[in-house]
Design a protein that fits this description.
Radius of gyration: 35 Å
Distance between the termini: 128 Å
Order of helices and strands: HHHHHHEEHHHEEEEHEHEHHEHEE
Number of domains: 3
CATH topology of the largest domain: Nucleotidyltransferase, domain 5
CATH architecture of the largest domain: 2-Layer Sandwich
CATH class of the largest domain: Alpha Beta
Shape: elongated
Number of helices: 14
Strand content: 5-15%
Helix content: 40-55%
Length: 410
């Protein structure tokens, strides 16, 4: 009898060793209950010891066998309400405490659901511990997400100076004009000059995948190399067909350069895709080489309008809203992402990076190099600007106008 009991305990031990590896909790509970019932008196304790589980679990399994209350086909492993309680249930006040901690370090518009904080997860976790809670940084992350917080980077949205009083109306007018132009099949282009970039083996913001401890070696300074210089990418994003064009300037960013970039876009792409169009809409910033003040920009647009025989409608973004221009978040951001972490070694390399920029939504980009020299501080006299056939689109005619070329005097 003693030998049989010893043998049975050995079998139980062997089964107990492998059961957690191949059985889930429900299957283990039922199996241990069966073996306890077969063992007889004292079986719960013996089987629990062999399986390394609580005797009450074995007892529950044996009870379900004896009453026939188990259901092997049921997907649920534990009974409803079983298992470890969540941290929120065990610590009902933890969510409110997290909200209290971050309330004084919160940013974002109260009218929007997106909020962010400058406290780290560890900072909040440490403060919760000081308040008597148990919370890992992972739990804090989940609680912040539940409260509507997310990780955010700096955004250039704070306007310097007073907001233009007609900003909303100007945006509404631009959006309506874009809709009308697209319906009529006339091109709408969003334009701007990307920030100048150093050419050479310089550090470029971002990161790329490389073998461990094999980061690119770049120069330890950012002084321009005279023979390589800088490049000024003038971008044109076509709203109609989600295409991009970049005129890669190697000289100064002037109004003449800006209009030359549009001219090159028309010659390479626009004329073929929109040859039958009567007019072109240009959306650009209110400052810089294509701002609403520079006369050179308007004079050069008049030359272009005469050359291609199209009316050019210009809509400037309201002051302080340049980052809302579509060329920024439909073209430039993807170019920056494409060359992130890679030195812009030479012009050919830069052209390849820009031309290979693509998105899942079908963006394609063409890039040409502009080696022309552009003189700075060219003055357009009062007499010259008066010859431009320009019609203001009121009520904000400084920021919206039509250029048809030059006035025809008899």
């Amino acid at each position: 009898m003693i030998e049989a009991e010893t043998r049975l305990k050995q079998i139980l031990h062997d089964v107990g060793e492998i059961s957690p590896k191949i059985l889930n909790e429900k299957q283990q509970r039922i199996l241990s209950g069966c073996m306890s019932k077969a063992y007889g008196y004292g079986g719960d304790k013996v089987v629990a010891s062999a399986f390394g589980i609580d005797p009450r679990t074995v007892s529950a399994g044996r009870a379900s066998i004896e009453t026939g209350s188990y259901d092997v086909c049921q997907d649920r492993i534990r009974q409803e309400g079983g298992g470890r309680k969540s941290s929120k249930e065990r610590q009902p006040e933890i969510l409110k405490s997290v909200e209290d901690i971050v309330s004084n370090s919160t940013y974002g518009s109260p009218e929007k659901v997106l909020l962010w904080t400058n406290l780290s997860l560890r900072d909040i976790s440490d403060e919760l511990k000081r308040r008597g809670f148990t919370a890992s940084k992972d739990l804090v992350g989940r609680l912040l997400e539940e409260l509507g917080y997310s990780k955010q980077v700096n955004q250039k949205h704070m306007q310097v100076g007073a907001e233009h009083p007609g900003r909303d109306e100007m945006f509404s007018r631009i959006n309506q004009a874009i809709t009308d132009f697209c319906k009529e099949g006339n091109p709408v282009i969003s334009t701007d000059t990307k920030k100048k970039e150093l050419v050479g083996n310089f550090k470029n913001n971002g990161a790329e995948y490389r073998k461990e401890k094999d980061g690119r070696k770049v120069l330890d300074h950012d002084f321009p190399i005279p023979e390589l210089g800088k490049i000024a990418p003038y971008g044109i994003y076509v709203v109609n067909d989600n295409t991009g064009f970049v005129n890669l300037g190697t000289d100064h960013d002037t109004g003449e350069f800006a209009v030359e970039s549009i001219r090159r876009w028309w010659a390479h792409i626009g004329k073929e895709n929109f040859g039958e169009a009567r007019k072109i809409m240009v959306v650009c910033d209110s400052g810089g080489s294509n701002g609403w003040r520079p006369r050179l920009w308007k004079y050069q647009l008049a030359l272009l309008a005469e050359e291609i025989g199209k009316e050019i409608y210009v809509y400037h973004m309201p002051p302080g809203t340049s980052k809302w221009n579509k060329v920024e978040h439909r073209l430039f951001c993807y170019i920056s992402k494409n060359w992130a972490g890679k030195p812009l070694l030479d012009i050919k390399t830069i052209v390849n990076y820009i031309s290979s920029t693509k998105t899942k939504k079908g963006l394609t980009v063409n890039c040409v190099v502009d080696g022309n020299k552009y003189e700075r501080s060219i003055k357009i006299s009062d007499e010259e600007i008066e010859t431009v056939d320009l019609e203001r689109i009121e009520p904000y005619g400084d920021y919206a106008y039509v250029i048809r070329g030059f006035k025809k005097y008899k």
